[in-house]
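User: structure tokens for Amino acid permease/ SLC12A domain-containing protein, please.
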Amino acid sequence: MEQSTLTQTNNQDPTIPSLPPLTLADDTKQLPITTAAAAAGKKVPKKLTLLPLIFLIYFEVAGGPYGEEPAVQAGGPLFALLGFLIFPFIWSIPEALITAELSTAYPGNGGFVIWAERAFGPFFGSLMGSWKFLSNVINLAAFPVLCITYMEKALPALESGWPRNLAIFISTLVLSFLNYTGLTIVGYAAVLLGLVSLSPFVVMSLIAIPKIHPHRWLSLGQKGVKKDWNLFFNTLFWNLNFWDNVSTLAGEVDKPTKTFPLALFSAVIFTCVSYLFPLFAVIGAVSVDQSEWGSGFHATAAEIIAGKWLKYWVELGSVLSVIGLFEAQLSSSAYQLLGMAELGILPKFFSVRSKWFNTPWVGILLSTVITLAVSYMDYTDIISSANFIYSLGMLLEFSSFLWLRRKLPELERPYRVPMRLPGLIVLCLIPSGFLVLIMAIATKTVYLVSGLMTVGAIVWYFFMNFCRSRELCKFDSGKHVEQE
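Assistant: Done. Predicted tokens:
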């Protein structure tokens, strides 16, 4: 859930997407690796188990129903409900399936960077890495700001000036230090944050049941209110996106060939349920002007349904959700840089880990510095451009997936999407069409900034080659990244 970027699921429930059966191979089979320590014969502990991984994926994508409200404002109740019912089939499930297959085929840090590099070579691996890193870290900058924005309701001094700037600075450093302490702590913190931030919505949905009028679910919206399809589709897109981010942590997962697919599919179901139940409850129980359905309306709805105590609980949950979002996405950014260094795309020092916590401290530090710099800017167009280049990265990711199926049909895939190539093409074309639509409605400013970011990414690739040729920096050869 990236509510800040908008100016802005298992009991055979028919509202929950069904998933293809898992076809997992034995974990004892030889798999490609990308960690330098493993290549050197050292044992690297893989500490992320199933439950923490599920919640890390959940926070990569959603973090709760916070931010789904603009879909009602933009399209009306019926279209909002249909959007969150249908969109997982055309976007979330294809992206999760591709992530499951490629993360188990290449279970190393770097994720989608490895996939693009293996499919099309180092240039495209570097381009993918630049696109995804820029989009992720720029988006990451919004979370401390959003956290302080929620807190200012209780502490008005944080509304502006140096107290606000200092609070953003301190909160960013504290949250980054938590990430530095290791994925085990971050993973179990995500479990706690997820349960606590979702609990007020469980209470609200139960209290709302006697007050629900089902006919409100069928409303197309108020008469005279024009549909804002740009806001509608962007709301769906950013609430159900980033399933592939967790692939950059694959090298840290215990028994990845079994854990990864199960975690991804569990997170899909969990995420869809967390969006749909509160949406059905609030739409059915609360009658207000459609224009009031902006980001944060769930807190207002909680007060209408149960009183101020539940409103405060929802607002506290929103702060905890933002913390979980920050931790999950900072982990992905830092381990992506580590994986790129192990591939030889970035200098070797990016793969250095903390002696105390075994975390990629260079990646955490760089991501934190950029986050701090961007968090003080008026960056609406920059975020829109980051979303645009993320879409470019996703098109490259779909292409890499299809090309690897064609190029390396015998590659060991412990989880394999149960389709032949023609079916996979259709699987990828549908979400790709949606990406093209999102990009087509972008503004001229977004095209310009995205173009400059892409040119910068290309220049960076050749600059890294220059540094390698002149031995200005040490690079890993990447030869330990093997494939069957």
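User: Anything notable?

Assistant: The chain is about 65% helix and 0% strand.
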